[in-house]
Design brief:
The chain has 100 residues and is of the alpha+beta class. It has helices spanning 16-24, 54-64, and strands at residues 3-8, 29-36, 43-51, 68-69, 72-73, 75-78. It has one domain (3-78): Alpha-Beta Plaits (2-Layer Sandwich). The N and C termini lie far apart (45 Å).
Length: 100
């Protein structure tokens, strides 16, 4: 079963190729998604790496969390699933917004 990892505190100069090379040492990579700012086109400083096997992902977390890459100490951990943060979609309530 595949495992998605969050990679944070990346330098703006870190590329998908750099991430792919780093994580390939620990197993098969399904995907690398470097998150980009849609307005500026620059990386936002974090990425998601999906690895084919959960045990390989665990090895990568242990080895790479806290490692210095492109002069930044990166954070690597299992990605958390998206959750409902309780915010409402006001379009479905007739467009009325609360007064706070």
């Amino acid at each position: 079963m595949s495992q998605k990892l969050y990679v944070g505190n990346l330098s703006y100069s870190t590329t998908e190729a750099t991430l792919r090379t780093m994580f390939a040492e620990f197993g098969e990579i399904v995907s690398v998604n470097l998150i980009m700012d849609r307005d500026t086109g620059r990386p936002k400083g974090f990425a998601f790496v999906e690895m084919a096997a959960e045990q390989d992902a665990n090895k990568a977390v242990s080895a790479l969390n806290g490692k210095t890459v492109d002069d930044r100490q990166i954070k690597v951990e299992k990605a958390q699933p998206k959750t409902d943060d309780g915010r409402r979609d006001f379009r479905s309530s007739g467009g009325r917004r609360p007064r706070w």
